[in-house]
Amino acid sequence: MKALKIRKKLSDYIQNVDEEKLKVIYTLLENDIEDKSSISLERYNKDLEGAEEEFKNGEYISHIEMTKRVKQW
Question: Under a CB-based contact definition with an 8 Å cutoff, are residues 25 and 17 in contact?
């Protein structure tokens, strides 16, 4: 598939995707841009702190809920 066609499909998809999936897409793209061979200690700690903050704020999905969602895909 040519790059232009892929960009069009991604653009169409992103316009209609819900916020949760959009965050996942962003995270995947963000991680792909970084050096894949290693992660700095600072980045690792920053990611952990962010995850802990989200957890404290109730911004997480239980394993049971995620299993239900996956079955709907």
Answer: yes
